[in-house]
Amino acid sequence: MRSPLVFLTVLLLGVLPSVGQGSSPAADPLPAPTTSPEPAKPVLDLTPDANGSLFQTQMQQLFRVVAANDLENDKRQRDYTYIERDVQNKLDGKGKTQSTETKTFEILEIYGESVQRLVEKNDKPLSKKDADKEEEKIQKIIDKRKNESESDRRKREEREEKDREDGRKFVTEVADAYNFKLVGSEKVGGRDAWVIDGEPRPGFVPHMKEAKFLSKFHGRVWIDKTDLQLAKMDVECLDTISFGLFLARFHKGSRLMLEQTRVNDEVWLPAHVTAKIDARLALVKGVNVGLDQTFRDYKKFRATSKIVKVGDVDEPK
Predict the structure, then answer these.
(1) 108 vs 65, which has greater pLDDT?
(2) 129 or 31: whose pLDDT is higher?
(3) pTM summary value
(4) Measured between alpha carbons, how far is 87 from 316 in angstroms, rounded to an integer?
(5) For 142-164, b where at least 16 C-beta lie within 10 A, e where not — what string?
(6) Residue 24 to residue 199: CA distance in whole angstroms
């Protein structure tokens, strides 16, 4: 998701897939999900009470399992290459499109790093000059990783582990930040999903710096009943949010919607993302944009593939 919206998009994608605690009247009683061997899912007690409601601890249990599954899913995502098409519309004050820019990327995995290669602008192939620049960029990344020292590799892995640990801590913050309510069941991609609303919990006090934004969002998530994975979400900004020492602001009404799809019976991957962002950069330049992203042609590459140079690519499975 390469655009001026990337920070907000990453923030939103980190919020609701890992959500925690809440209470709800159950419009559709939840049976205990079937466990699967890889990875093994804990047995959930989702039996509603006499009034058909779920306790806060039950909702907390459900969302923590969803969060854990999301972390495992992230590892499998790294085994896939795909095509990402981004359409960015600049909007006027009434929401009408003033201009449109389209970019299409090939997303590659190079030595464990996700790398994008621009292949089209406005649905037309790149010029030879621009294509050569993209190839040069990719080759530099390959060379850097091939020649990475043991010390640099260890530092990189330590940073990655710290990021994962911060993610786990963030789950606890989200558990305290929201009240969740089960509102029913719907089909998403032909599969049964629970529909759950999340509203900020009054009096929430964050412990992590990143969690201070949680009370500024609310939304709805769809959780796949079988895999306990995020199938869809729709989140909205409730108030102005400032980033980077007030160098950027996102305003009330900014919105993000995400849909995911199950691929190869083993992983959940993005299918469609839409966003409408009303922002101000450096407190001077107003930015009102709409973003539409589609993802396709997912291909799993061989774990034993060795990249020698740009253009030498193993056939996908």
Answers:
(1) 108
(2) 129
(3) 0.74
(4) 27
(5) beebeeeeeeeeeeeeeeeeeee
(6) 12
